Amino acid sequence: MKSPLACASALSLSILSFSLPAAAQTTIDSVGLTVTATPAVSSDYLFRGISQTRNRPAISLTLDVQHESGLYVGGFLSNVTFPGSNARQELDLLAGYRFEVGGLALDLGGVFYTYPGYDKPEGGYDYNYFEAMAKASYTLDPVKFLGTAAWSPDFYFESGSAVYLEAGADVGLPLDFTLAGRFGYQWIDRNPRYGAPDYANWSVAVSREIYAGFVLTVGYYDTNLSKTDCFAGAKYCDARAMVTLSRAF
Prior knowledge:
Layout: E1 26-28, E2 33-42, E3 46-47, E4 50-51, E5 58-67, E6 71-79, E7 89-101, E8 104-114, E9 129-140, E10 143-152, E11 162-172, E12 178-188, H1 191-194, E13 199-211, E14 214-223, E15 240-247
Antiparallel strand pairs: 1-2, 2-5, 2-15, 3-4, 5-6, 6-7, 7-8, 8-9, 9-10, 10-11, 11-12, 12-13, 13-14, 14-15
């Protein structure tokens, strides 16, 4: 969670973590760019298993612009709702380099999480923060193995150094279904300031293109945070089902 009361995408962008059709992209050959825009509607916005919208629906847009060299920039925009805060949107800015070594796909980059329009109260703490991130994937059909490591020098709410590790796999199933599983763990230096202890999160989801490039994802998401541990008794860390409809252009 990115708030001490409600807690992030990503780019966990967990609601968009499933493979979309390669044709759903725009290639600009003259400058060697591939541009992908992915709007989505979801029953919730979860960041590492914790709701950013107080268990309410979210509308988001992901933009990815990659050069043929492997360099890329991107962005993620979504509505958010944090109790006691006027933050109503999140804008994440991304940049990095993607390449392959011996069949291992690597993505080295960073994400700057921002909340446009948020007014920090007197004596309050900043919401914005940066994470350096490394991702890796390796495919042994029909399974794609994935791993993520992220580090922030000063995590959300100025809660100090934070590390996140995640492992998972996507499995191709008959009838073009994809089964995805993830397990992650978040460490935070200043837990009292953040509002929750270090915690684990996990998910299992199934996705499939249903019509004309529209992808439906249905999943189960959970954390090991009790209600008492979850930001002063909030219900944003509970197990939940989530449904997402997305379409890449």
